Amino acid sequence: MYTFKPYTERVARLRDAVRDRLMVADAVKARLELEAQKKYVKYPPMLQKPYMALYVLERMPLNIQEDEYFFGGLGNKGWGGAGGAMWVMMDIEHTWPMGEDGLYHAPDDDPFYSHQRMAIAPEDVKELREISKERMQLSGGFMAADWLPDGVEELFALQANPSGKKGGWPVYMPPGHLTPGYQNILREGYGAIRKRAQDWLDARKGNIMGDDIGKYMFYKAATVACDGAITLTRRYADLARELAEKASDPAKKAEYLSRAESLDHIATETPRTFWEACQMAMMYNVFLKAENDPGVTSLGRFDQYTWPYLKADLEAGRITLDEAQEYVDGFFLKINTFYGGGFGKNAQTTGIGNSYQHTTIGGMDPATGEDAVNPVSYMVLETMARLDLHDPTISLRVTKNTPKEMWDCAMAASTRVGGLPLLQNDEVIVPAIVRELGWTVEDARNFAFIGCQEITGSGNDYPAPNGSAMGHNGIFWAIALDMAINNGINPINGAQCPEEIRSGYLYEMKSMDEVRAAFEKITTWMMTWSATLNNLTEHEYPRLFPFPNLSISTEGCMESGKDVSEGGAKYNSYGGTATGLATTADSLTALKYVVFDKKIATGEEFLQAILDNWEGHEMLRQIVLNTVPHFGNNDPYADEEMTYVQDLYYNITRAFSTCRCSTYKCGTFGASDHVVQGEITWATPDGRKTGEPIADACSPAQGRDTNGPTAVLTSATKFDQSRLMDGMALNLKIHPTSLKGDEGITKLENLTKAYFSNGGMEVQYNVVDAETLRKAQAHPENYHNLVVRIAGFSAYFVDMTTEMQNDIISRAEHTV
Amino acid sequence: MSAPVPSFSRPRTGPDTEKGREPTGRLYDIQGYSVQDGPGIRTTAFLKGCPLRCPWCHSPESQLYKKQLSWMAVRCLGVDVCGTRCIDACRKNAVELGKVRENPADGAKIRMIHVKRELCDDCGECAERCFAGALYLCGRDYTVGELTERLLRDKSYYDMSGGGVTVSGGEPLTQIDFVESVLRRLKENGVHTALDTTGYAKWEVLERTVPYTDLYLYDLKHMDSRKHAAVVKVPNEPILENVRALAARGKKLQIRIPVIPRFNADEENIRATAALCAELGEAVTLVQLLPYHNWGVSKYLRISDEPVAEAVPPSDEYMAKLKDIVSAYGLPVTIH
Q1: Which fold, B68-138?
Q2: pTM of the full structure
Q3: Closest-CA distance of chain B to residue A539, Å
Q4: Which residues of chain B does A605 touch, with a Cβ-Cβ cutoff of 8 Å?
Q5: In this complex, is the C-beta atom of B108 within 8 Å of any C-beta atom belonging to chain A?
Q6: Superfamily of domain B26-66+140-335
Q7: Which sequence spans correspond to the domains of chain A?
Q8: In this model, does residue A791 exceed pLDDT 50?
């Protein structure tokens, strides 16, 4: 069995400090952003964005915490970042108790805040509110109601919000969500990148014709972007020198001085050591968040882009493996602090504690295709497992040659911190990227994961993986099926689709073919609208939200002189996710079985049962729950409906394109979207009641998989996973009794290998039992180290909302 | 609005209908990802019927060959939800109103039903009317083809892990025609096979499995035949003769010793058992010491109102001591 190493005292102190930190939001950075916005309000956006960033970076508060190994905060006075601008949407003055420290503290017992340690001063609350208002006035809203596309009100009317009212507003996910080109930044350095841009500008001074004017704007912006990154790095060098002066401990003094020297070096040059490489990657990440935080800038293939530096250090005798491990510990503890607090629906959807710094390890070497696991890959898992860190999310890319030791390490980590790492199958994904997205095989081998599960390139791709999904209309697949059999009416709010896509009621449908035709009509209409709204957003993006700070590291942009938002990246695509398709598939199976095949109930009886939210129809519901087959049990009768829905999803989206690209990627992932989506989804034909969660991600519906993990995995490989190029998540809960000893772990490895060889793309294991979870629910104080993973990220169980806890408990348990 | 309780019945499903000429067998369960019944990832087929009556048996529904009416209290929705459909369905008046339980989710009272065992003839008509799956007939018949098809579904998992199929019981040898055919079909398909047996059968019966069985999971309960017969109702001589015969035929054996307090857990018996295992030589690939547990108690309540005998599970320390004893005979041994 794989045994994890001990960690140092300094790492232990840092771990406790990170875990127990108080997230304090303040108005400082927001104030700077407002000042910058006013100063550069007349600049064109391509220049405005990097200049604003530079302004903020020159002035934002920096800090270096005790025991830290790496530097770079998000501009609050305290640790990491805290999302004050969002917090002040709450009535903090009346609902957050005032602490002895003079700060309002998020109420500890309120499930809305899930025991997060969040605090803010009264004057910051006030100022942040004023700043938000002023910034809104300066920038205006995007896609104002005044110029919405014709006919979209028909779509919006169908959307339900949690209070059940008609109409609503679609959710826009800005493009973003990507893997920056860390390896490109490390290879070239800001000085050289800046020089390339400046050379272009110098060569064309006073002589810019035709399309070159667009390039001029971009290269000019690129120089300012580099200035921003250089400035930030140098300010940290200065701060380190200040601390060195104050330090009384000679060792500490020497450490700060050495860091300062390194920071000055990497401000313009390429890194010389492992530490410098890690620091430069982290600083670039912080820098990106200064201007136009795209929410999800993941860490990419950390083990691949840092290993050459560690290898050189080791060969030169500059570092030991233990020292390197300490750096990796320090690196990911720091990354963990990038989470800035969240609450309510938003946090429920995206995950409390989720910093979005998804890190990819293992996988193929881009040039040779050989397995590229290296010592850093192990160090990342050592860090997460030993320190009980649930964030950032780690994905292990598995190849057919992944070393046995790495399998053991991954499985040992998975049993220790719950579902981490996610296991991703290169043998399916790499050829699929070549086939579906048209990348070169070398680039395909270099893919990385971001956010929940999304597949992206490494610094050569603008993937917009959450550009468009039906969920962004506030309508989900399961709702579409309810509407399809109910003459286009959404039962939750009574709103009805336009006449041309209504198909009558279930009792008027003579066969499953007619049910399917009705369903296809509605889903096609909704998905297509969703893509249309995305395409409008995309069209305006270059004019409103260019991102030169990112473009300087993205292959294709510096060569073409085009920003990522203009399609400058080497690869362009967009996509979306459909979480919980098992609920829709099981609903189709229930209709097929009960109404058409076995004729247990008439269409009228069945529809009435659904419209009555199953009340008064418990017998019929029990038949649906206990007699009708369900997805996830290796039963072809049920599984073919999942295949049908997956095929439909894929086929509808083949017609989609934007002005930037014509590649649409389907996905089946989604953090805990299934809980939030379930709340506004009426009762469904699979026996689910109104408001209950839908199935999560690509997993079977909760508790409906009763034939064990091999049945789940076999069901899940009956449809073509390799078309899910936006990524997929399959959660499998494994009972600890099936993992006894080395042999149990080996069997779980082999389970995964067989699933992967059958076409499986991804799986993650939760090794917990319901009893433990119930105990944890009752006595959270005793279970703070209990980590569980749900679809694409993991969280401390006791930190989750009660509904989420209940959902996890109800998930099928695979006991032995 | 509310709808009236519908009049429909649950359709009969499953392979019980239209059997061909193939032998059929009766199972009470099939378990996938079975990771403690032999090497690798396995599927275990649990057959019904057993000549032994071990008081510690954790699968009481495995003992009788006949299909048995079972009732799971936790699934019973109560007469306030279902009405008296199951009570009305019984022509023997064996189903009556029973106790009240509390719904753990909301504390609501659920008035359950009760089965009068002395009147029940296991006809299953009440179960057909129970949609919640609280009442069900335990036992399902499969043809050889049906079961083999079911067991082959996980073949890729067996192949990847060095696993296969375990045929267990009850005592599978009580359905020897069926078992022999199933094992043969599995071998024809290249599947590793294990037979989990008490060994209590005529050698001529057991011998029929020899060509198609890669590994025997073989129970040895007590070395003293008198004590053996007193508790499990059959003597041990055929069992001991059979295990020696299997070893002589070169078959691989995984010996399973259920460690039952006040029956066979004494050191003397464990020593005697280990001595036999040592005598069997290289045939024994593993000795498993299986400590008594009481997880099976809830299963008794599903098929019977009789009080269930319970014992205190042996301590970890005691199990470790027994493990050392067996180990001293040069045998590979595990607890569980």
Answers
A1: Alpha-Beta Plaits (3.30.70)
A2: 0.91
A3: 48
A4: 3, 6
A5: no
A6: Aldolase class I (3.20.20.70)
A7: 9-150, 151-169+465-590+631-706, 190-269
A8: no
